[in-house]
Amino acid sequence: MNRVRRGRLTAAVFLLAGTAATVALVLVVLNENINAFHPPERIVNGTAPVGVTIRAGGMVMPGSVSRDAEGLGVSFVLSDFQGSDFPVRFVGILPDLFREGQGILATGQLDASGTFMAHEVLAKHDENYMPPEIADLAAHQSADP
Fold first, then answer.
1. pLDDT tens digits, one per residue of 16-48
2. What is the residue-wise DSSP string for 65-125?
3. What is the pTM of this model?
4. 70, 2: one domain
């Protein structure tokens, strides 16, 4: 094998190894940052991982919201209204649209006791949602001739 071919082969091998290392690194980083969505059924039947950050979605059970006397803690039950429901614990400021019977998406970890410890709660809304400030402004403008 002459020098030119050896040089090309060496460059191709290093290029291939570099590409493989880059792809492997990207896959590792993406795997660490992906939060899989789990419906209530998968959380209740035990197929959702414990101690791993995941997303859980469902409806807040009516009558299940319990706020701490002091602090920002709140507990509620998330359900799919088909028999699968589980407790959720969140400490923080809830979105304005959070209420019983409302759909939410929570990000957090499932603990060993089956309680979902949320660190982020997002409230779902329909396509006709208008923030209260804008609704008040629109109502005020429509009242003025």
1. 999 999 998 888 877 766 667 888 888 888 888
2. -EE-SSSSEEEEEEE-SSS-EEEEEEESPPPTT--TT-EEEEEEEE-TTS-EEEEEEEE--
3. 0.66
4. no
For 51: left if phi > 0, alpha if psi spans -120 to 50, otherwise beta; the answer is left
What is the total count of domains within the chain?
A: 2
User: Containing H/E element for 55?
Assistant: strand 53-60
- By the 10 Å C-beta count (0-12 exposed, 13-18 middle, 19+ buried), 94 is classed as middle
Does 13 lie in the same domain as 58?
A: no
Do 116 and 89 meet the contact criterion of CB atoms below 8 Å apart? yes
Angle subtended at Cα 65 by Cα 87 and Cα 50, rounded to the nearest 5 degrees: 20
Domain match, 58 and 97 both: yes
Pick the closest to residue 113 from 64, 75, 69, 63 (CA basis).
75
